[in-house]
Amino acid sequence: MTSTTSRDSAQKPRLLESRRVLTLILLAAFVGSLLNLDWTTGFIHSGGIDAMGEFAKALFTLDLSADTLTSAISASWTTVAYAVAGLTLALLIGIPLGAIGSGVLTRSPWLRVTSGGGTRFSLAFFRSIHELVWAWLFVAAIGLSPMAAVLALAIPYGGILGRIYAELLQDVPDAPLRSLRSTGASEWRVFWYGRLPMALPDMLSYTFYRLECGIRSAAIMSFVGLGGLGHEIRISLDDLAYQQVWTYLLFLIGLVVIVDVWSTMVRRRLSE
Amino acid sequence: MALLRTREPETLYSAASCSVSLTAVSKQYGVKEAIFPLNLSIDAGERVAFLGPSGGGKTTLLRLLSGQLETSTGTVCLCDRDLSTMPTGRQVSQLVGMIHQQFDLIPNLSALQNTLAGQLGEWSLIKSLVSLVWPMNRDIGLSALTRVGVEGIAYQRAGSLSGGEQQRVAIARLLVQDPQVILADEPVSSLDPARAGEVLQLLVGIAEEAGKTLIASMHSVELAREHFSRLIGLRNGAVIFDLPSHEVTEDMLHDLYNLQGLRSET
Ligand SMILES: Nc1ncnc2c1ncn2[C@@H]1O[C@H](COP(=O)(O)OP(=O)(O)OP(=O)(O)O)[C@@H](O)[C@H]1O
Ligand SMILES: [Mg+2]
Predict the structure, then answer these.
(1) Where are the beta strands (DSSP E) in B68-186?
(2) What's the CA-to-centroid distance between B214 and ligand 1, angstroms?
(3) Fewest 10 Å CB contacts: which of A58, B127, B231, B237?
(4) Beta-carbon separation of A182 and B173 below 8 A
(5) B32 touches chain A (CB under 8 A)
(6) B103–A192: do the CB atoms touch at under 8 Å?
(7) What is chain B's alpha carbon radius of gyration, rounded to the nearest angstrom?
(8) Parallel/antiparallel/unpaired status of strands B96-99 and B181-185
(9) Which helix (H) or strand (E) holds A236?
């Protein structure tokens, strides 16, 4: 045994112990929260069971009338448009803020703490408020316009994308970057020639995943009164027209599947 | 200024070369003594290999020479200039370049882009960005790749190349960077014996041709003997021998590698 290994092993147990303690605390919090839930009352009321049965039955008698189909197609289009516009704006927020928040653009520790910290705080603020709440806020402020939907989606998604991008940019392997630095490249050039190319495949596949989420969010958001699949679903639910509800739901599932297939194809091409 | 170089378009690299000297250099990692105080001077154009058991301090010494690591005591001079007083990474990169055992390249960029990255220190940010999409000074990159014998894979992703090809591209990048001193940390250890011989021959050939100083750490004693004129044995952060290749005996090598077991007892 050399002296290094014996010193290493002297330090390790303490680290392991503190990790174990943390795990125990988290586990206790989890179990505690489960016990605190009231599982007995108000779980499903009796009329609800009948309604669920009817809802399930409606799946086999789908409403495929021309009217419903045209409104489903136009609502799908609206939902996709909201999601894509929202995500595009979210990219404009997430890419620069993520890059700054990762703190990799500068070698100065002081700048890293101030600009990185400030950016990370605003990203956290953006994403800690749910898109539905943003939707309510924007509908109250600018009315039922598509702009409200797009902004409501863009802000929290920008916050989420920025945070994930920051992490992906930090987690890039260090050895190739060190080689780049030894050619005299500044951190900015290291970013463009090393970090970004290496993080890009993961960033892209996460963005696709977010597009999928964006479509679901855009659909739900239109419950607020903004057009789209959610809006149609809500109207049909109010009419107890479960056959129509299923048609709209299947369109929603279809959209998510299409995005999924598309993203798989793009990812496969990237990893070649 | 001494650092100004002129480079004719048709010759790939300048013939400039310079000496290296270490004065009372030591390095500690925390309390661990990785390099004990040592003096070393290497002439311009010399080809030197560091040998020795794992943990002996070869990588540490090379990183001190490249300025990637700061010395705990003492000074490293390249071309008679104190490395620690040189302000920018760019100036250092004109004096010294390094290649490693592996993971030198950006896997998602093409071999050509990786090669041209050797000029990043000299390019403006705008030029670097444009070059990312539309490589500029292609001819320099291509002739460097031709010199190392892999011009055929210029547009292939670096990550999809074989280990030997990747090392050749790393050497091509070094050609484009054109430093005066070349450092190589086990440059061929990740290659099979045949490939290792070829790639080392290439590296040494280039250094010889341009009269550059070459300092490498070597895993294989045979290759080191064959290609380097001076061998330095390092163990536990101290120089065990420092001799012309032909004066290093089997006994010395045996001692260098096989006394490890005694370390904990002494
Ligand atoms: N970043 C570090 N922090 C702490 N100790 C280090 C660090 N890098 C190296 N060391 C220690 O310094 C000593 C010399 O390491 P170095 O990597 O220079 O050896 P080496 O001769 O290159 O070995 P190898 O042949 O395995 O590459 C070793 O004991 C190592 O554990
Ligand atoms: Mg090493």
Answers:
(1) 73-78, 81-82, 96-99, 181-185
(2) 21
(3) B127
(4) no
(5) yes
(6) no
(7) 19
(8) parallel
(9) helix A229-238
Cβ neighbours of residue B89 closer than 8 Å, sequence gap 6 or more = A181, A182, A184, A185, A186, B121
For residue A50, the number of C-alpha atoms closer than 13 Å in the C-beta half-sphere is 3
- List the one residue out of B161, B130, B129, B131 whose CA is nearest residue B145: B161
**Is the beta carbon of B29 within 6 A of some atom in ligand 1?**
yes
Report domain extents, chain B.
3-251
Per DSSP, which regions of B149-212 are E strands?
A: 181-185
Q: What is the pLDDT along chain B (266 residues), one digit of tens a residue?
A: 333 344 444 466 676 678 899 999 999 998 899 999 999 999 999 999 999 999 999 999 999 999 888 899 999 998 888 888 887 777 888 889 999 988 889 999 999 999 999 988 888 888 888 888 888 888 999 999 999 999 899 999 999 999 999 999 999 999 999 999 999 999 998 888 888 999 999 999 999 988 899 999 998 999 999 999 999 999 999 999 999 999 988 888 888 888 654 544 44
Count of domains in chain A?
1
Reduced to 3 states (helix: H, G, I; strand: E, B; else coil), residue A72 is: helix
Quote the minimal CA–CA distance from A106 to chain B in Å: 14
Indicate which CATH number applies to the domain containing A138.
1.10.3720.10
Residue B40 pairs in a beta bridge with B22
CA–centroid distance, B257 to ligand 2, in Å, is 15
In a domain, A1, yes or no: no
